[in-house]
Every structure is written in C-alpha cells, then in structure tokens.
Design brief:
The chain has 87 residues and is mainly beta. It has a single domain (12-81), classed as SH3 type barrels (Roll). Helix content is 7%, strand content 54%. This is LSM complex subunit LSM3. LSm subunits form a heteromer with a doughnut shape.
Length: 87
C-alpha cells in the first residue's frame, strides 16, 4: 500500500498545463489552460474563454463569450473543475 494520500486537489496536479473546464456560480463557465492553483481553489487560466448565460425578455437562453489571455478565478466561485473531454 502506498504512503501517499489521495486528496481532492490532486486533480489539479494532473491537469497543470492542460486545458480545463470550470463551472462557476452565477451561470458562468470558463475553458482555458490551467497554470496555477492553491488550496482555496483559486486558479489561474490562460487562453481562456468565459461563457455567461442569461435569458432575454422572451425567456430564451442566450450566451455571451469573452476571451482573456490570462484570468484569475477566485476559489469561492468555483463549482466544478474537469477536463473538457469530461463535459
């Protein structure tokens, strides 16, 4: 049996420098390359595309996208982090 413990944040170690998909509070999602993280789930992404979901006057779902070269995501807004292939 191995002495190393498996921790939830071990996923971040595996995904460093890989593309990730992050779901956030407030009907937002970001896809980008993971560069850094900490124990609070604060993360830094590069080549990021943020998608913001909303509804129009007719209750139709609309989405807008914003591109960022580098973005810092505060950990308390993170709901889910996964590989884009898992979404």
């Amino acid at each position: 049996m191995s002495d190393s413990k498996s921790e939830p944040l071990d996923l971040f170690k595996v995904l460093l420098d890989e593309k990730v998909h992050v779901k956030l509070r407030g009907a937002r999602e970001i896809t980008g390359r993971l560069h850094a993280y900490d124990s609070h789930c604060n993360i830094v992404l590069s080549d990021a595309v943020e998608t913001i979901y909303d509804t129009d006057a007719n209750d139709q779902l609309i989405s807008t996208q914003k591109k960022s070269e580098v973005i810092f995501v505060r950990g308390d807004s993170v709901i889910l982090v996964s590989s884009p292939n898992d979404v």
